Amino acid sequence: MERPKLARTPSALCALVAAFVTGFCYASPAFSQDVAPITQNPAQQQAALAKPLPGESNQVTPDPLNGFNEAMFTFNLKLDDWVLHPVASGWAYITPEPVRTSVGHFFNNVDVIPRLANNLFQLKMAEAGVELARFGINSTLGVAGFFDPADALFGLKQHDNDFGLTLRYWGAPTGPYLMLPFFGPSTIGDTVGKVADGAMNPMSYLLPWYVSLSAEAGWRVGEAINYRSQHLNMFEEADRYAIDLYGAVQDAYLQQRDHQVKVLHEEEW
Prior knowledge:
Helix content is 63%, strand content 3%. By secondary structure, it is mainly α.
């Protein structure tokens, strides 16, 4: 299924649009699992192909906000066509992949506070300690976080976490699925989590609100553009394998979040 091509025109909303992809990044790993069989065994290939693709599952996901969600999904896709994809393509054209990878490392390193805090909220002291050690190593040996020697040299893996996962971890209801303008797929609970994680930014308490807000917006725009530049065919791959792109994004996001919580509970053992 080919998504209709929309006119690519400049938009005054550029600074806000780019943030949309940071939400979609939760869903993209689930798409990549279904792009091609990972085995040459015919029996295993047949089993893999028999597995429902995102958006094709017979399981009905409650979606009481469907009208709003589909409108926001279309809105986000158009903004991606008009602004984010062209800007990210330009960034990819002028910037080598190793540089964009290093920029991604830098963003991850600075975003340590929500990961550290939420590991502590879940009483995962070892993981919180790893996050603290990674920040110290990467901020020094990794040249302000542009490289990841904590992983490459010491085997310290990043433990992604956020307040939305903390709520799920302790059994709080997530509420219905919610497609946010600019930020992409979420739920009511995960949206509360985004607000809580944002409140952990120390700039909010050290700088005037208009300075911290502008800095945060610029930061998220840069992060989103860099991420999108590394996944330029994200929607095309999803369109190729999904009957319903809206349903594919919804299924992939919810499945990914469920999987993340399952992994968090398995780590207890």
